[in-house]
Amino acid sequence: MADQEITLMKGNEAIAHAAIRCGCDGYFGYPITPQSEVLETLAEQKPWETTGMVVLQAESEVSSINMVYGGACTGKKVMTSSSSPGVSLMQEGISYMAGAELPALIVNVMRGGPGLGTIQPSQSDYFQACKGGGHGDYHLIVLAPASVQEMADFVDLAFTLAFRYRNPAMILADGAIGQMMEKVVLPPFKPRRTEEEIIRECPWATTGRIGGRKPNIITSLELRSEEMEVINLRIQAKYREIEAKEVRYEEFMLDDAEYAIVAFGSAARIAKKSIEIARSQGIKVGLLRPITLWPFPTEEVKRLAGKVKGILSLEINAGQMVEDIRLAVEGKVPVRHFGRLGGIIPDPDEVVEVLKSSF
Amino acid sequence: MTREEIIEKGQVVYKKPVLLNDTPMHYCPGCSHGVVHKLVSEVIEEMGMTDKTIAISPVGCAVFAYKYIDVDWQEAAHGRAPALASATKRLWPDRLVFTYQGDGDLACIGTAETIHALNRAENITIIFINNAIYGMTGGQMAPTTLLGMKTATCPYGREVKLHGYPLKITEIAATLDGTCYVTRQAVHTVAAINRAKKAIRKAFEYSMQGKGSNLVEIVSTCNSGWKMSPEKANKWMEENMFEFYHLGDLKDTGAVK
Questions:
Q1: Does residue A114 have a cis bond before it (omega within 30 degrees)?
Q2: Residues of B whose CB is below 8 A from A24
Q3: Any alpha helices (H) in A52-90, and if so which ranges?
Q4: Domain A250-358 CATH (choose: 3.40.190.10, 3.40.50.150, 3.30.1050.10, 3.40.50.920)
Q5: What is the ipTM of this complex?
Q6: Alpha-carbon Rg of chain A, whole angstroms?
Q7: CB pairs under 8 A, 24+ apart, for A159-164?
Q8: Chain B residue with minimal CA distance to A209?
Q9: A208 partner at 20 to 30 Å CA-CA among A305, B6, B118, B244?
């Protein structure tokens, strides 16, 4: 099958190809290492000549996220991508989109911080991605790919979830997933929605008052506190629904496990290798890999705490997801964290040593 | 008596545009916003673009512009309206897309978005209300505040040593290759209102003809911020603002293309 063709490419390139193929209407971005291949690949592919997708290099990440905000208002499928310092600049626009309840996709190919930090991989934006990031009470739907294949697959999934709940979604990758080359089966081509489809599917969108309908107004502003509380409660109810319905995770060798590693993205791949080494030494350990970081698989971690003797949170940061694990475990078993910082990737052997010394 | 009974047929000499709805405006008496809202509404109606207009409102006094003019609106973050407008116009190229912004929003926090949207030749229009002050937040110094002018954050008058110079962003816009029509107008007299309306019409038409970006500055009063009566504010504007912000077209390349 032609659309089952296996190709070799970087994670960042897979994001770009998947965007074109899933009917994305617009990409607005700004160069930053280690994610610049997304914009470069789109520019090279010229989708404006094939699918009609708009690709625009903005003057800053502040501007690109506000282009996404404007594009999302119109009911179109729009996205941006960046890396950690750029995503920090985007927090204003992301908060506005969450407040105005708009669907959009933001890709963060994380690098080490704080500040300008390093261009090497990191997972140190977990807090920013999962706990809001900008001002106000809000959440993004956060997907954590662990392979180039998942980079490609999660673009369509992220758009589907974003439109289902009218909420921005984020693909939280890291420099390793963005830069490494792997074989990938790209998703089949899906046409961009027609004007009629957008107007039917997004009756809230600012498309112009087609057919003489009442004006559509997209805003996150409401000065009356009583009304603003009602809006917040409605948004919070939506988050509870997402938590109930959209948790995604992968289990690996957990059936007979006495210990568990919880890890996402690149760290989960290292964990699988560590588990192989540990099991060859007689240590029964398995992996729980959250695919949605928000909503977090709280119930699954809680269940895990009832059957293993200890949980290790393996993250390429100083310990962020471990807080959510501890909240789920409620002190039932010891929870340890291990991570490397500054762009250093943990070594599988060193993880095994940590496992041995932790429990 | 009903409205229809009061207004006899053939007796109507003036009526407000249908797009300008009956919501009481929050603007201060004497403020220029109301007049400009009316002009924008009239032009959209006269162009037959009521069902094809997408407008972007700012942060500032005109933040609630969407309550008064019955077209589709997006309410932007402070200064970011031109970024929203750029994406919106590119995604819906046959729509009339314009932003409505004040001087704090456009010429200060949104300088980058303004300059780059204009220079990318986005086929949009920016309506720029310049009253030389931050109105909504209570009358603080703006980038456009004149030297010597007193505001809440330069209570002894703006001085170069402390605050630098007032910014003529419209002059900057006129130097950009991406701009098609750049003009500075006012709405303090009937003649000025008529000229401003023609300018807005021209800018909207160029936007729809794909001739590049358009900037219509309206030098305006802020009676509350300036602490003057509407009449005195108009006089002060004529004597001081127009000295620094000269009225008229700065650039019009639309007609020759």
A1: yes
A2: none
A3: 61-73, 84-89
A4: 3.40.50.920
A5: 0.96
A6: 21
A7: A159/A22, A159/A24, A159/A77, A159/A79, A159/A103, A159/A105, A161/A242, A161/A246, A162/A103, A162/A104, A162/A105, A163/A77, A163/A103, A163/A201, A163/A202
A8: B51
A9: B118
- Give CA separation, B15 vs A129, A238, B149, in Å: 52, 45, 38
Q: What is the pLDDT along chain A (359 residues), one digit of tens a residue?
A: 455 789 999 999 999 999 999 999 999 999 999 999 999 999 999 999 999 999 999 999 999 999 999 999 999 999 999 999 999 999 999 999 999 999 999 999 999 999 999 999 999 999 999 999 999 999 999 999 999 999 999 999 999 999 999 999 999 999 999 999 999 999 999 999 999 999 999 999 999 999 999 999 999 999 999 999 999 999 999 999 999 999 999 999 999 999 999 999 999 999 999 999 999 999 999 999 999 999 999 999 999 999 999 999 999 999 999 999 999 999 999 999 999 999 999 999 999 999 999 99
pTM equals 0.97
Tokens of A171: 């693909």
Q: Which residues of B touch A (CB under 8 A)?
A: 50-54, 56-57, 63, 66, 70-77, 80, 83-88, 90-92, 95, 112-113, 116
Number of H helices, E strands in chain A: 14, 15
Domains A6-195 and A250-358 share a fold: yes
CA distances, A28 to each of A42, A80, A105, A271 (Å) = 10, 5, 11, 35
Extended strands (E) in A83-219: 104-110, 141-143, 168-174, 181-185, 217-218
How close is the nearest chain B Cα to the Cα of A60, in Å? Answer: 9
Which candidate in A199, A204, A218, A224 is best for mutational testing of the B interface (most B CBs within 10 A)? A218
Strand partners, A55: A27
């006269």: which residue's tokens? Answer: B46
Q: Which two tokens stand for residue A250?
A: 């992968």
Q: How far is B164 from chain A (nearest CA, A)?
A: 25
SS3 call for B194:
helix
Whether cis (ω within 30° of 0) applies to the bond prior to A295 is yes
Task: Classify B188 in phi/psi space as left (phi over 0), alpha (psi -120 to 50) or beta.
Answer: alpha
> What's B238's DSSP letter?
I
Bridge partners, residue A7, by sequence:
A184
User: Which residue type sits at B47?
Assistant: M
Domain ranges of chain A: 6-195, 250-358
Pick from A323, A246, A314: nearest CA to A286: A314
Closest CA to B81 of B66, B67, B69, B68: B66
Query: In the CATH hierarchy, which top-level class contains the domain A6-195?
Result: alpha beta
